[in-house]
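Service request form, structural biology core

Requester: graduate student, group of Dr. S.
Request type: structure prediction, single chain
Budget code: on file
Notes: please return the result as structure tokens.

Sequence provided:
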Amino acid sequence: MREIDVASVRDTVAELCMEACYYLPSAVLNKLQAAESTEESPLGKEILGTLIENAQLAKKKAVPICQDTGLTVVFIEIGQEVHFTGGDLYSAIHAGVAKGYTEGYLRKSSVTDPVFVRKNTGDNTPAIIHASIVPGDKVHMIVCPKGCGSENMGALKMLKPADGVEGIIKFVVDTVRSAGPNPCPPITVGVGIGGNMEKAALLAKYSLTRQAGEHNPDPQYAALEEKLLELVNATGVGPSGLGGRTTALAVNVEYTATHIGGLPVAVNLNCHAARRAEAVL
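Core staff response, request fulfilled:
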């Protein structure tokens, strides 16, 4: 059994919060640069150039890529041979978010009560934590701060099995088209298929933790990702919703088993600031 003090979890989460908000992943930056070279719309090309410059300045000055530094989503895989010491794991993660958002001068966007008393918590806690137990003695954490402009444009639909692939494609493309400029394109489109209502939504969010350009290992789903990307970019929404061929940089599909009578599909959109940072303890 390997022991890990939760203080190291706290400090790592704090560092990841700042890293994710300051530094656009290199794979995403490469996608933006490739899109700028092929974008046919003059305005779209100009916008992509501005986004690239913004990312480079944020990295140079160690400041947020975007002022909306979002709610903090943490995916954590815990090796079953790990024993945490020194306190509660979830409390340590929340403390890490508070530390990172305070010391990193990141905007605090979390409110205590979603309906009646929308008072800011002051430190961007609580984090949204998705934990799973896996073999081994390591802890793998991915921190994905998620702003609300893109999050608000997500959608969930309980399709019928007879709707099939065509129904999935129509729902995804319609969701992107309806979102228009709101999720700050070029976007990454996360798609979750199967399970039940909440599982499909979780899969869609989890798909956004992938490195840009990484495809589903199943050839059929990888082909679906390519088809969806082609159709999404054919909508003409374009960079910042002002027209062009670069509406999305990638479409990521995750799937799991489902009921014989169901075909749940969820779409979660990530803005151009596709923030993610990861570490292994």
